[in-house]
Amino acid sequence: MRITKRTNIAVRLLMYCAAHQDRLVTKSEIAEVCNISENHLAQVINQLGQLGYLSTQRGRNGGMTLARAADQIRIGSVFRHVEGDLPLAECFADADNTCPLSDACRLKLALRDAAEVFYASLDEITLDALVCDNDQLLRILQPVACVR
Question: pTM higher than 0.90 for the full model?
Fold first, then answer.
């Protein structure tokens, strides 16, 4: 199974916000520290805001923060919401499925079951568990200081 770039960005963004819960964080600092394009980041920020994971504030002193406590955000839920209905294999895509075996293939059922087990294992992990007491991660997620 391969995770999309969007989901990867979403988890990095949420971890950054969880590491800085005491303040609003900006798109530019996340982009720099997490090595993410600001354009891609803007799309994911918008999606996570609509899904209720982020609270955003526009304007000169704007930024974002978690909309819920980090221990209330389940990683499996984030993956499901951000990944959406992306087909795991061709046979899962109604419109683009050209596989002649689809109707009789048992692999499709096995893949569906495996995906559910994958998401269920991620449901056991909270955002807080990824960040709390993870000193190495917290050092990495420190904003880059401006040198003048």
Answer: no
